[in-house]
Amino acid sequence: MKLSQLNPGEQGTIVAFTDLEMSVKLMEMGCLPGEVVEVERFAPLGDPIAIRVAGYQLCLRKNEAAVIIIQ
């Protein structure tokens, strides 16, 4: 399942990425495999998505969140 498919309040564990180039950027921001990530809320038009990972809040565009595969 992709992170972009979760609803606010749901969480999952990062297991992989679908885009190598984007994965480097995401890992630099703390989205590492094995980290638990929770969707906190969506912006009014649905993009970006506010998530909580590694104890801090991060906002991602939907296309960035779609790169993150969770379990």
Summarize the structure.
This protein is of the alpha+beta class and 71 residues long. The chain is 18% helix and 38% strand. Strands 4-3-2-1-5 form a five-stranded antiparallel sheet.
Overall number of strands: 5
If you consult CATH, what is the topology? SH3 type barrels
**Spatial sequence of strands, sheet with the most strands:** 4-3-2-1-5
Q: Assign an overall shape.
A: globular
Strand-pairing-aware structural class: alpha+beta
Write down the oligomeric state.
single chain
Per-chain topology:
Layout: E1 11-17, H1 20-28, E2 36-42, E3 49-53, E4 56-60, H2 62-65, E5 68-70
Antiparallel strand pairs: 1-2, 1-5, 2-3, 3-4
Task: Describe the protein in words.
- There is one protein chain.
- With 71 residues, the chain is of the alpha+beta class.
- The chain has a single domain (3-70), classed as Roll (SH3 type barrels).
- Helices cover 18% and strands 38% of the residues.
- It is built from two helices and five strands.
- A five-stranded antiparallel β-sheet has the order 4-3-2-1-5.
- The model has no long low-confidence stretch (mean pLDDT 93).
Features:
SH3 type barrels, alpha+beta
